[in-house]
Structures are given as C-alpha cells and as structure tokens.
C-alpha cells in the first residue's frame, strides 16, 4: 500500500492562511491633524461652533455619528458630503504613520501572510491614506464600524484584527479573530483589557515580536497535531536544518522508537554530511538508516535539464518506500517548508507529492526562519546550519552529471570552506558552469578575503579556471541561468 493511500485527509490538518486586519485611524495612522483641518473648514463655512479638539479625541465611530453632534438631522447627510469633498485636499497630507506601522506590515509579509484594513472611514479616503503613505495593504475596506467589521474580516478569513477602539474588539469578536488592541487611540490599555481584548500592546512597535511568537506557536501546535496522527514515520533526513527539525518533531510527537531517519547515500551527498546526520539521529534516539540511491542511473537526472530534481526526488521516495513497507510504516515525510512551496521552480516537490510523500512543515505553513527559531528554542545543533543542497545543484543545467564532476565540486567546496573557517564563513558554493567554476561565498566576506587564493585552491582541485562571484552566495543561483541562459554563456 502506498503512503498516498493511507495518509490522513489533508483537510484535517489545514492551517489557515495568516490574514491580519488593521483599523486605520489611530491604529496605523495619526489622522487627527488632517481630520481637524476638515472640521475647521466646515465650522468656518457654516458658522457652526465645532469643538474640533473634542472631535479628534474620539475618532472611531462612523462620521454620521459625529456629524449629528453638531448639525440637525436634516443637515447631516449634506454635511457628510461636504466633509468628504474637502477630505482629499485637506486631510491626507496632514496624516502621519504611527510608530511601528511599516515594521508591522513587513512582519505579516515575512510570515507569508496577507493584510487588510477595515475602517469606519469612507473607503475612497482609506485608499488615499494608504497610497499617500505608501502602505502596502492587500485589501482596503471602509464604511464598517464595530461588529460590522466582522463581515469583511470573515469574508477575507482574517484570523487577527488590530485596533485602538473598543468597537474594534467588537469587530474581531464578530469574526472569531484574535482581538489585538493598541493603546494609541482614545482608550487606555487597562480600558481595552477590561473590555475584552485578547492582547493589549502599547503601540505597533510591539506588534512584530508578538506576531512572530504567536504565529510560531500556532504553527508548531498544528505541526505536532499532524505528526501525532501517524503511528510511525520515515523521515527523509538530509541532515539539514529543515529535515532535522522535522525529525526531532516527529520523535517528540510519536516517540523516537516509531521514527526512522533515512539519509540517502549517493555521489550527490557531500561526504561531510553523513557523519553529523548519524550523530544527530543517535542523539534523539532515532534509528538511522543509509540506503543507497541510484539517481545517476536515471537518464533524466544525468541529462541535467531544468527538471533534474524531479528524477532525484523520485528516486529518493521510491527507495524509501520499501524501507517503510519493511517496518510497517505508513508515512514518508520530507522536510519541504512553506518557503520552498512558493519558491517557483521546484520539480522535486512535485515528484515527492506524486509518490505520496507528506510535507508536514509546509502543511503547517512553517517558514525557514520559523524552523530555525524553533530549532534554537529546542536546542537543536542544526538551528543555524547553512543550507546545503545536493552537489548536483552546483552543476549548471545542460552539463551532463557524472560522479567525477560531483566529487570535484565536493573537494573544491571543502577546500574553500577550510580556507574561510577563520572568517566565520557560513555559505560556500562552487558552481560548475562549464569551462570555469563560480565561487560563491557570504557577501560580507567578499572584501575580507584574498580572491586569488580561493581561485588557486579551486583550480588545484581540477577545475580549468575559476572566479569569485562578486554578488556573493545566493540560494538557487543556478535557476538564474535557467531563466536567462544567454546572459550566462
């Protein structure tokens, strides 16, 4: 029976996409100067004495509510229209972003989330404010107040809503979202807390750290729930940060005796990776097996076209399936994470999926940064381990892969790394691009090291020529050549 036939239904483990809603006035922006200017204009035009200081001290409710405090009912609609006529010219440029706004929006983006603004303000005015301040928000929504905000929040499946008003808490509650309050508006932190906010922050500068911790906790809980749904598991364990974390999580969730770490041995595995992988598995009490894979026997792999990784991953999963069957294990898991899933050209992910492998880290929406953070909190030695893709990823597409080419790359990389160890090197790649080798090292080291010394060392390992890439290390740089081959000839 294949793993595809027995894995739990994916819907059981769906992790909602991160969608964060924000109020606008006094949450993202201080709109008081601009709003006060418009009210001052209305007062001058109509001759009605309006306490504009009072008006801007209680922002939040719909404009019609405030207008009714100063004009008779039959004039309210006309005054609202007049206010909105003045607003674009007098209110937009006077408004300023509150501290922490850009960082908060960026924090959502870093977690692969989406953002929206849900405000009682007139929708065109919301858009004008966002555009003027260059605030990158996916969905601006206006003309909703209090619990009505829950309509838009539910429609866009927001899981968090951030505001400064008690009415914003009502909106979050109506949507079943986490109510995060910032004490930058008319209510104090104690008042917001007493009203029922789930989280109260002094201002948005505190939001990114809270969001990172909250989302990581939610995603780790989702991961452990998913892993606990299996009796046993084979983890495709390369020794890298992702698969090491998955292995540790599986051991925690279902017990180390029910987990097997499988490290595929082939010419594409750097020699230096095998011993640390065995040590890591032994350290968490997991059985470690080292099956030999034969991707070199697959023409599609040797040909090294853009879909090379498809054949490699197909070989891996097909090699691990008999091991799973032998031990009565019902799942083969890979360390694919949420960043991998959106990284564009990844034929290996498709090959594993077609063969029934599961991707618990991706399904829990865990990013590479989150995996490293969680690994640190668990005390895993792999938390800061540099990315180490297979050696074949160093061979330019179109160059036929042979064991000799892979061994040459491996030797060259080990030599360069040893030369750079005193500098605290993290990432080293020696790319075989045909008649020469391209040496990629951490960008921060480019001005600190003797380039000629690195070139000589790589040539000594059998390359006809070499050069140091002035752009430094970039994960997936070979895909740049695939997209624009003429540029790299």
UniProtKB/TrEMBL annotation:
<dbReference type="InterPro" id="IPR005232">
    <property type="entry name" value="LarE"/>
</dbReference>
<protein>
    <recommendedName>
        <fullName>NAD/GMP synthase domain-containing protein</fullName>
    </recommendedName>
</protein>
<dbReference type="InterPro" id="IPR052188">
    <property type="entry name" value="Ni-pincer_cofactor_biosynth"/>
</dbReference>
<feature type="region of interest" description="Disordered">
    <location>
        <begin position="470"/>
        <end position="489"/>
    </location>
</feature>
<feature type="compositionally biased region" description="Basic and acidic residues">
    <location>
        <begin position="480"/>
        <end position="489"/>
    </location>
</feature>
<dbReference type="InterPro" id="IPR036412">
    <property type="entry name" value="HAD-like_sf"/>
</dbReference>
<dbReference type="InterPro" id="IPR023198">
    <property type="entry name" value="PGP-like_dom2"/>
</dbReference>
<dbReference type="Pfam" id="PF12710">
    <property type="entry name" value="HAD"/>
</dbReference>
<dbReference type="InterPro" id="IPR023214">
    <property type="entry name" value="HAD_sf"/>
</dbReference>
<dbReference type="GO" id="GO:0016783">
    <property type="term" value="F:sulfurtransferase activity"/>
</dbReference>
<dbReference type="InterPro" id="IPR014729">
    <property type="entry name" value="Rossmann-like_a/b/a_fold"/>
</dbReference>
């Amino acid at each position: 029976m294949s793993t595809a036939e027995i894995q739990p239904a994916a819907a059981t483990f769906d992790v909602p996409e991160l969608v964060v809603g924000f109020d606008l006035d006094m949450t993202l922006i201080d709109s008081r100067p601009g709003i006060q200017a418009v009210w001052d204009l209305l007062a001058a035009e109509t001759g009605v004495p309006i306490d504009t200081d009072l008006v801007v001290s209680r922002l939040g409710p719909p404009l019609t509510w405030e207008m009714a405090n100063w004009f008779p009912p039959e004039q309210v609609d006309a005054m609202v229209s007049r206010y909105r006529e003045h607003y674009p010219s007098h209110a937009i440029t006077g408004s300023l972003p509150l501290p922490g706004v850009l960082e908060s929006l960026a924090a959502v983006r870093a977690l692969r989330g989406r953002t929206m603004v849900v405000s009682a303000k007139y929708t065109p005015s919301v858009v004008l404010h966002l555009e003027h301040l260059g605030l990158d928000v996916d969905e601006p929504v206006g003309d909703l107040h209090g619990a009505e905000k829950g309509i838009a929040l539910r429609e866009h499946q927001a899981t968090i809503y951030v505001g400064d008003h008690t009415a914003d808490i009502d909106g979050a509650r109506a949507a079943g979202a986490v109510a995060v309050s910032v004490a930058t508006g008319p209510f104090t932190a104690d008042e917001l807390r007493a009203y029922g906010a789930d989280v109260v922050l002094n201002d948005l500068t505190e939001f990114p750290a809270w969001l990172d911790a909250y989302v990581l906790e939610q995603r780790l809980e989702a991961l452990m729930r998913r892993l606990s749904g299996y009796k046993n598991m084979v983890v495709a364990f390369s020794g890298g940060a992702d698969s090491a974390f998955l292995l540790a999580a599986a051991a925690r969730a279902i017990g180390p005796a029910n987990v097997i770490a499988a490290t595929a041995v082939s010419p594409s595995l750097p020699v230096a990776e095998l011993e640390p992988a065995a040590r890591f598995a032994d350290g968490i009490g997991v059985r470690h097996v080292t099956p030999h894979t034969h991707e070199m026997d697959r023409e599609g792999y040797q040909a090294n076209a853009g879909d090379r990784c498809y054949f490699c991953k197909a070989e891996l999963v097909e090699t691990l399936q008999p091991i799973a069957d032998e031990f009565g294990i019902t799942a083969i898991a890979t360390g694919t994470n949420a960043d991998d899933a959106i990284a564009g050209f990844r034929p290996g992910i498709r090959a594993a999926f077609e063969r029934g492998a599961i991707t618990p880290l991706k399904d829990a929406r865990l990013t590479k940064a989150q995996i490293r953070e969680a690994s640190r909190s668990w005390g895993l030695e792999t938390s800061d381990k540099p990315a180490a893709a297979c050696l074949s990823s160093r061979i330019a597409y179109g160059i036929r892969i042979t064991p000799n080419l892979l061994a040459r790359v491996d030797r060259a990389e080990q030599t360069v790394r040893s030369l750079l160890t005193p500098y605290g090197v993290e990432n080293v790649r020696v790319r075989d691009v045909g008649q020469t080798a391209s040496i990629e090292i951490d960008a921060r080291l480019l001005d600190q090291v003797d380039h000629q010394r690195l070139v000589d060392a790589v040539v000594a390992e059998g390359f006809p020529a070499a050069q140091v890439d002035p752009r430094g290390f970039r994960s997936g740089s070979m895909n740049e050549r695939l997209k624009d081959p003429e540029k790299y000839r």
